[in-house]
Structures are given as structure tokens and as C-alpha cells.
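Posted in: Structural Biology > Protein-Ligand Complexes

Title: Requesting predicted complex, 2-phosphoglycolic acid in pocket

I'd be grateful if someone could produce the C-alpha cells for the following input. Sequence and ligand are given below.
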Amino acid sequence: MVRKTLIAGNWKMNGLLEDGIALAKGVAGEVKKAARKDCEFLICPPFTLLTSAKKAIKGSKTMLGAQDCHFAASGAHTGDVSPVMLKDLGCQYVIVGHSERRTNHFETNELIAKKAEAAINAGLKVIICIGETEAERDAGKTIDVCTKQIMGSVPEISTAQNTVIAYEPVWAIGTGRTPTTAEVEEVHAAIRKVLAKKQGRANANKMRILYGGSMKPGNAKELLALPDVDGGLIGGASLKVADFMAIAAASK
Ligand code: PGA
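-- Reply #1 --
Done. Output follows.
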């Protein structure tokens, strides 16, 4: 298998010091026990927990990521965190363009591409999120929307080594609803085609495309078995060690 499964937890704005550290330690312990060679594990806690989470996962193969970054390396950007800072702190990954950022912070494809490029240049890997709203799906525009988002938010310097795509239908995030497996595979295969056009077939075949949106232990097996699904970006279920690990176990 050219594409190693990636099981990534997006903690969103959850976790205070005590429970955040316990969660990171819990995941790290289980990752060690699982000793998987075919699967990578990543946790993306909020900024406030990154330093303590890093300590908590030390010695396990769990990787650390942030949930967003600015595109500048430093400067007058009150409240922002730069990719260079994240790298300095020990992060390997950063999520960019999550639908909650696109919606709540009016992030455009152009801005997301800039962030992704800066993060890659800082030595981070990026998870670039895309996905349609419910209205767009109902209007039959899913593939169109995802194509535009890929074309606009994946920077030219993206390769299979530094970039992961996460397909997250907005209407499936945190709702308990998911597309059918056929619908998921249709979109993932379409995304890979667009990536092939944009970055070449060899690169596209190696680039991981995660599914995200209400992934749970109960639906993970069928989703992760799809030919173009290379892992999951998991929100709610990543806040419980057992659920997160059960999803990973379903990828065997
Ligand atoms: P969810 O979130 O698993 O809670 O639906 C996924 C995400 O938004 O990354």
C-alpha cells in the first residue's frame, strides 16, 4: 500500500490542562500498545495544550498537530500563531481550511492556500480541509464545490509528502449523519482526479485523502475500507481514547 493510513484527531476547542493531558497520555499509551506499522496517529489539540500534549505523547509514535496557523512567520498579527512557532514547538502537522474556519472566520481558498504554503515552507505537513454544505449537496454541486476548493486552496508546492486532503461534508460534521459509502468513494475518487490534473498522477496516487464528519467506531470500518479513503479526521470521537482507538482498529 503506497498510502499509509492516517488517523487524526481534531480536538477543536476542547480540553483544559488536566483532561487534555490525560487524553493525550491515554492516546499515546494505546498507540504504543497497538504497535501499528501500517497506520499513523496524529492528535491536534488546541494551541493552549500543544506544549503539554507534546510532553504527554513523548516516546509513543503519536504525532502532534495544530488546528490553524497564520501565513506570516512573525509580526503584527494579534492573536495569531505562525507556522514557524508551531514547528518550533514540535508540531509535525497543521490543519488548514477547516469548514469551521471557513465559516466562522470567513477564510477563503486563497487565504488557505497561503497558510498551507507557509506551513509547508516552515517544515510542517498540512491537512487541507474541503467539503460541501448541505445546500450544495442538495443542488448536486458537491463535486464542483470540492474541485474549486482543491484548485483554490492547495498550493503549488503541495506534494504527497507534505500535504493531506480531508474531505469533510459540512453537514456531516458533528451531526451524526454521514454520506453513504458510495457517495464518499465517489467524492474521494473525484478529488484524486482533480489532484492528478493539478499535481500529476504519480503525486495524486500517493496523496492521502482522509474522510471526516461523524466518523465513529460504528461506521469507521466501512468508510476506511473504501479504496480512496486513506484515513480519518475525527472530531467528537477523538475526545475519547477508546473511540479514537476503535476507529483506528477498524482500519486493519
Ligand atoms: P466530527 O468532526 O467527527 O465531530 O464530525 C470532524 C471534523 O470537523 O474534523
